[in-house]
Amino acid sequence: MAHGFASHTDLLMWYLVDGYYNPADELGVVWNDPDVGADWGVTDPVLSTRDQANPRRVDIEAALRPRYGLRT
Questions:
Q1: Residues of the chain where predicted confidence (pLDDT) is lower than 70
Q2: Using CA atoms, how far apart are residues 37 and 33, in angstroms rounded to an integer?
Q3: Cα–Cα dist 28/46, whole Å
Q4: In terms of Cα–Cα distance, which of 45, 53, 7, 49 is closest to 28?
Q5: pLDDT 10s digits, 27-37
Q6: Could you write out the DSSP letters of every residue in 11-66?
Q7: What is the CA radius of gyration of the chain?
Q8: How many angstroms separate the CA atoms of 10 and 69, rounded?
Q9: pTM for this structure?
Q10: ∠ at Cα 14 (30, 33), nearest 5°?
Q11: C-alpha–C-alpha distance, residues 8 and 68, integer Å
Q12: Residue 29: CB atoms within 10 Å
């Protein structure tokens, strides 16, 4: 499962989780990965340092990579 957020205005967002944060369980995909093809409606996003370092989907270990149901 993957999720992402894009805002065209200032935004403050909360979402609930069912467990404590574990950085070892963190995985991300670069926002503009052509294999995913998401249309974020932005061309020059403001990204966190962590999100700037995200790999392309194809570069993620196959066992961890999302495989089905890619939607935009």
A1: 1-2, 66-72
A2: 6
A3: 16
A4: 53
A5: 889 999 998 88
A6: -------SS---GGG-----TT-TTT----S-SS----HHHHTPPPGGGS-TTTS-
A7: 13
A8: 30
A9: 0.69
A10: 10
A11: 29
A12: 21
